[in-house]
Structures are given as structure tokens and as C-alpha cells.
Amino acid sequence: MFALESALLIRPYGSNSSARGLEQWNAMDSWKNVYGAPISETCFFGEDIIGGQFGVCDGVFLRLDPEIGEHEQMGSSIEEWARAVLDDFCYWTSYPTARDWQQAFGPLQRGVRLVPKQLLCLGGNLELDNLQEMDERRMMARYGFYAARLRGTAEGAEVYFSDEDIEALQRQLDQLG
């Protein structure tokens, strides 16, 4: 189910014509294996337009920042989670970005979200010229790849990705199809 001009996706239990279902999305042989242990026990049930994942783990509702692999607690019930999203939907879903993109380029296809070309955590922004459409599984694998490499990096530190890093990322993305 989509809301807020596709800025918010709530996954169905089973896959359907508009979205991958909970079981398929949370399978460890999909994008979650790139992140590994930090998120393996979390059931992700939704996402924002740029791949921020909404999930629940041990009764805590949270949002995973996919670029750095860290989560922010949003509440201890689905009602608290929903209230947080509705109270500040522009922040939690990047609604203005979804609206602006679709006004400029049309609706997104099934299984596609928007991804910053330059990661937000590395100085990128949500301007349309810094965004691209990407299959959601490839998007999350890409985010996970960078999150794993950025883990433990001090804020403001210079970051360099080698040709080997980029080739490894491409191989990983190719495995997803």
C-alpha cells in the first residue's frame, strides 16, 4: 500500500502487483545479508521514497538510515510509529521529494525507489538532479555496501572508495539481477 504520493510504502503480507511482500523483502538471502547482524532480527514493513526502512525489532518500532546502517527509535507500538510519521511526514517519508520527482518524471514503477547519486551522509542532497530511480533490492544492497564501509568512520573524515570497491559493488548488484 502506498501513501503520500508513493513517499510511504507499507508492504503487504504477501507479494502482489504493487510491492514485494514481508517474507520476500525480509529474506536474509536478499539485501539484508549485506548489512548482516545489525538488522537480521528486524522485520521491515515499510519504507520511505529514498529507502529509509521502517521496521520492528523486540517490540520497538524504528527507522533504519540505509546509508549508515543505524536506526532511530520511533515508538513502542504501531500507533506510536504511525503518530510519529503523520506528525512529521515530510521528514519521515521525504514526501516533498516524492511529489516533486513524480511531477517532473511521472509515477515510479513497481519495486522502484529513488536513490541519491551522491550519498546524503557524504554531502549529497534531495534535489532532483542528485536522484535516480533504482530497483529497491539493488538500492538496499548499494546502501548496505556503503554502510559497511563507512561503519566506524569519524564524521567529517575524508572517504575514498577504490576501483576494487566499486567493482565489488557492481558484482553484488549483478547477483541481484
Task: Give an overview in words.
It is a single chain. The chain has 177 residues and is α+β, with helices and mostly antiparallel strands. 36% of the residues lie in helices and 21% in strands. It is built from 7 helices and 8 strands; from the N terminus they run ββααββββαααββαα. The chain has helices at 22-26, 32-35, 78-87, 89-93, 95-105, 136-150, 163-176, and strands spanning 2-3, 8-10, 43-48, 53-57, 60-65, 70-75, 112-116, 131-135. A 6-stranded antiparallel sheet has the order 1-2-3-4-5-6. The chain has a two-stranded antiparallel sheet with strand order 7-8. β5 and β6 form a beta hairpin. The longest helix has 15 residues, at 136-150. The chain is globular and about 45 Å long. The two termini are 24 Å apart. The mean pLDDT is 87.
Q: Which descriptors apply to this entry?
A:
177 residues; two-stranded antiparallel ribbon; single chain; 21% strand; 7 helices; alpha+beta; 6-stranded antiparallel sheet
What is the subunit arrangement here?
single chain
DSSP summary, beta strand count: 8
Order of helices and strands: EEHHEEEEHHHEEHH
Structural class: alpha+beta
Gyration radius from CA atoms, angstroms:
16 Å
Low-confidence stretches: none
Strand content: 15-25%
Question: What count of helical segments does DSSP give?
Answer: 7
Helix content: 25-40%
N-to-C CA distance: 24 Å
Summarize the structure.
The chain is of the alpha+beta class. Helix content is 36%, strand content 21%. The strands form two sheets. Strands 1-2-3-4-5-6 form a six-stranded antiparallel beta sheet.
